[in-house]
User: Which sequence fits this backbone?
């Protein structure tokens, strides 16, 4: 009888152990699939550091194909400053120095970019506004200026002024501190489109653009660039707080040897 009881106990233990093991095996693969999902929400992805970009690291090794795995919105620049980059709904656009917009091939290279998968957490509307008043309103709406944010701002703009970049060839002589004040400028009236943007707190220093940075692409995909000024009657602002930050540094001699002498930040809004 005692023997039988012991055998039953051992049998019950083995059955329980088997069931638990089976459950763990069933549950773990799902967890692993979840954690290896490249579409990381709430993550600010950055390629290159702003400081390197300012100091003439103008060639990058991030491909357009790779960028598409890092987010569905983004802004930045292509290698050799061959155009401003704005990514919207997973499509990276390029605005060249003459203002012409196209979609680059997957193997083309990027020198600097911010990107994220956009999952808006909140939104608000704004009437009759310009760049300065938009920033005042955003500052009053955000729960804190000590975290990162991504933005999609849609509107019908009565005026939009965007900046581009002149393509550079080696040896690169001028840093962004000299090139940006002399950048090509594109203007349009009565244009519908979307501004894609990012906010970095002041503590980011020279690693990225401190404050707000927006790039624009028109709905008809014929006009865009780095947002400098605008006027509009109504804006739809959506934003998403980003609590994680992911860097990729350029794997190039230019980056390894760059001397981070010059500093440049856009004028604070
Ligand atoms: Zn820009």
Assistant:
């Amino acid at each position: 009888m005692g023997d039988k009881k012991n055998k039953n106990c051992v049998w019950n233990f083995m059955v329980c152990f088997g069931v638990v093991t089976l459950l763990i095996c069933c549950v773990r693969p799902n967890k692993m699939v979840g954690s290896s999902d490249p579409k990381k929400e709430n993550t600010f992805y950055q390629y290159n550091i702003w400081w390197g970009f300012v100091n003439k690291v103008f060639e990058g090794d991030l491909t357009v194909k790779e960028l598409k795995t890092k987010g569905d919105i983004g802004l930045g620049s292509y290698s050799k400053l061959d155009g401003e980059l704005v990514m919207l709904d997973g499509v990276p656009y390029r605005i060249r120095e003459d203002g012409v917009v196209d979609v680059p091939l997957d193997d083309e290279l990027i020198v600097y970019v911010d990107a994220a998968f956009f999952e808006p957490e909140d939104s608000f509307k704004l009437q009759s506004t310009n760049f300065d008043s938009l920033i005042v309103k955003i500052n009053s709406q955000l729960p804190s200026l000590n975290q990162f944010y991504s933005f999609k701002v849609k509107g019908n703009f009565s005026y939009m002024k965007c900046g581009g970049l002149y393509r550079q060839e080696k040896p690169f002589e001028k840093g962004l501190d000299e090139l940006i004040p002399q950048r090509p400028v594109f203007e349009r009236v009565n244009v519908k489109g979307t501004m894609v943007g990012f906010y970095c707190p002041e503590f980011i220093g020279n690693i990225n653009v401190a404050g707000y940075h927006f790039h624009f692409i028109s709905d008809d995909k014929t006009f865009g660039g780095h947002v400098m000024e605008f006027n509009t009657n109504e804006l739809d602002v959506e934003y998403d707080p980003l609590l994680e930050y992911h860097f990729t540094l350029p794997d190039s001699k230019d980056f390894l040897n760059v001397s981070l002498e010059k500093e440049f930040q856009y004028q604070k809004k």
User: Anything to note?
Assistant: The chain has a mean pLDDT of 88. The pocket of zinc ion is lined by residues 75, 213, 215, 226 (CB under 6 Å). The helical segments are 2-35, 50-54, 64-67, 131-141, 176-179, 253-257.
